[in-house]
Amino acid sequence: MTLRRAIRRDLSPGERAGLAAGERAARRHDVFLARPRGWRNQVWETDHVQGCCHVGRRVWDDLSVGCVGRGAPVLSESLSYKGHRYPAEVIAHCVWLYFRFPLSYREVEELMLQRGVIVSYETVRRWCLKFGQAYADRLRRRRPAAGDKWHLDEVYLKVNGQWQYLWRAVDQDGNVLDILVQSRRNAKAAKRFMAKLMKKQCRVPRVLVTDKLKSYGTAHKALMPSVEHRSHKGLNNRAENSHQPTRQRERAMKGFRSPGAAQRFLSAFSGISPHFRPPRHLMTASDHRLEMTLRFTIWDHITSTTGLSTAA
Question: Does 262 map to a domain?
Answer without folding.
Answer: no
